[in-house]
Amino acid sequence: MAKLVAAQYARGLFELALETGQFEIVSNSVMGLKAIAGDDEFRLVIGHPQISDEEKYGVLRNSVQQNVPDELLGFFRLLVERGRIAILSEIIDEYIKLVDERENVIRVRVISAEKLAAEEISKIRLMLMSRFKKTVKLTEELDPSVIAGFRVYAGDELIDTTVKKDIGDIRNLLLEQS
């Protein structure tokens, strides 16, 4: 339910930003707020029942860059007044999905045991661009439990080239044959 509500608020902000010609500055402000909105301490403050709506609004207003359009500040006030500030992080995630869709971008995570070489990252990026026909925004993560190879999370897809996956595939094949 919260995801649906977050998607509706994100869509409203997205359309407002487009209609008012403030798309770029609103989007940059929202992107900048992403890290802050996911912070546990920030969530405690804006979700605390003893902190007034005006104080919560002030925290939000002070968390974004100085030249924020009135549309975004009005959106923050609306979230506070309607008690939706607790799902700000989810709203931001949904907003980013809308921006990515508009700009034909796919965000991917590449997870490996060790940092991949630049040429490997380039090959992965090119393969994903060819597969999805989108601009690829790639982030790397290290996970020591990955055994040789890497995993790529692209949208709802998983591309797993790890030895662990290969061993699992062989195991399943052997179990099917017995």
Structure in a nutshell:
With 178 residues, the protein is of the alpha+beta class. The protein has 8 helices and 4 strands; from the N terminus they run ααααααβαβββα. It has a 4-stranded mixed sheet.
Write the layout of secondary structure elements.
Layout: H1 2-19, H2 23-37, H3 40-47, H4 53-63, H5 70-81, H6 88-102, E1 105-112, H7 118-132, E2 135-142, E3 150-154, E4 157-160, H8 163-177
Parallel strand pairs: 1-2
Antiparallel strand pairs: 1-3, 3-4
Distance between the termini: 45 Å
Q: So what's the overall shape? A: elongated
CATH classification class of the largest domain:
Mainly Alpha
Helix content: 55-70%
Under the CATH scheme, the architecture of the largest domain is Orthogonal Bundle
**What's the order of the H and E elements?**
HHHHHHEHEEEH
Question: What is the number of helices?
Answer: 8
Indicate how many domains the architecture comprises.
Answer: 2
> Looking across the biggest beta sheet, what order are the strands in?
2-1-3-4
Total number of strands: 4
Q: Kindly report the CATH topology of the largest domain.
A: Peroxidase, domain 1
The share of residues in extended strands comes to 5-15%
Helix/strand/pairing class, anyone? Answer: alpha+beta
What this model shows, in words?
- With 178 residues, this protein is an alpha+beta fold.
- It has 2 domains: 100 residues, N-terminal domain of the delta subunit of the F1F0-ATP synthase (Peroxidase, domain 1, Orthogonal Bundle); 74 residues, Glutaredoxin (3-Layer(aba) Sandwich).
- The chain is 61% helix and 14% strand.
- The chain has 8 helices and 4 strands, in the order H-H-H-H-H-H-E-H-E-E-E-H.
- The protein is elongated, with a radius of gyration of 21 Å.
- The model has no long low-confidence stretch (mean pLDDT 85).
